[in-house]
Amino acid sequence: MKAAATSVRRERTLDAVVSYSLLALSALFALFPVAWMLSTSLKSEAEAFALPVRWIPQRATVQAYVEMWTMKPFATYFYNSTVVSGLTALLSTALGALAGYGFSRFRFRFRTALLGGFLATQMISGVLVIGPYFQILAAVELYNTLTGLIIAYVTICLPFAAWMSKGYFDSIPKELDEAGLVDGASRLQIFLRIIMPIAVPGTVATLLFGFLLAWQDLLWALCLISIDEKRTVTLGVAFTVGEFIVKWPMLTAASLIGSLPTIILYLFLQRFYVEGLARGAVKG
To answer: What is the distance of C-alpha 151 from the center of its chain?
Structure first.
């Protein structure tokens, strides 16, 4: 018995060592670029280009962060990204929740075809549809506007939001709807007062997806925005790269500051995000 117990403890110890070693390697792989960006952002221009490479700055300076705000209108870029990302998340989540509730609770003609169409849109590369979007927005005079960019992002996020919401609503018992109807509530009242409070994790997951997609996108913003005052954070960071020189400290400082909102948002909402994705993915 003692030998068996010892063998079990050794196996558990080995499993723990292997698991924690893999987790440590994964954390190192994920955090090393962030650490390197932080180190570079605290260096001077000369030290950033010095050879051999210095992993830790000899004389740390925040000059790059000061230059980021004074040489470029990053406050404007942050405002634009906040407006675009926030409205994209709110609109896609609201419309997706309504569509998802309809698909989950009602049976109607072409329901399967519509669901299939929503899913098919996720299989089309965004590069293929940028041209038509550009032509449409230019025709309706929404090119170089935040409104046009928001419309583009909402159309990208909406199919995912509808599918995510439907999957989550499928996990909520339909008896709750029937009880609300018996009590005299309308479908809209049931949706707003009964279903949506229960579906908070799914709603948060959809909100976070829409916000992250709009905040981190570069390709669509690059094609639909060409004037400096309408640029988003990602465009601002991209255009810190000059034609003949790259200011690495300022570039890494801008990248770090631009990543903070998404990191903070995810850290605060990760519990709802994981639960929403898990529950929304197990229902058809």
So the answer is: 17
Single-letter code of the amino acid located at 202: G
CA distance 77 to 71: 13
Residue range of the domain that includes 15: 2-31
The DSSP code for 225 is -
Domain total in the chain: 2
Q: Is residue 7 part of a domain?
A: yes
Residue 169 belongs to a domain:
yes
193-212 tens-digit pLDDT: 888 888 888 888 888 888 98
In order along the chain (284 residues), what is the average pLDDT of each group of 10 residues? 66 81 88 87 82 81 85 89 94 92 86 82 80 89 92 90 86 87 87 87 85 90 90 88 74 87 80 60 45
What is d(CA 225, CA 239) in angstroms, rounded to the nearest whole number?
13
218-267 per-position pLDDT tens digit: 889 999 998 989 999 999 888 887 656 778 888 888 888 888 888 888 78
| Pair 212, 262: CB distance under 8 Å | yes
Stated pTM of the model? 0.82
Residue 47 in any domain: the answer is: no
Distance, in Å, from the CA atom of 122 to the CA atom of 106, rounded to the nearest integer, reads 23
| CA 206 – CA 276 distance, rounded (Å) | 8
The half-sphere exposure of 5 on its side-chain side, counting CA atoms within 13 A, is 2
101 touches 193 (CB < 8 A): no
